[in-house]
Task: structure prediction
Amino acid sequence: MPLKLDAPVTVIFGYDAHKSVVKPLIIKWDGRQYKIIKIGFHHTYREGRTLFHVFSVASNTAFFRLILNTDNLFWRLTEVEGD
Result:
């Protein structure tokens, strides 16, 4: 069962200009580092004027849901399952 939370998280994020692709590459959370091997779903939503990007991603051992606040560029981890 997924663990729901709202925690700050460090995300290494990459952009490929030739493919016009952006994606999380590495998550650093709870003293551990997770290499992202798959991006399952990405969508956006607004709260007032703030745009949020939501990424569902997986490492070899866990699933994560990440939210990027585009006003302050802060990342939050809202769900984790596994590991």
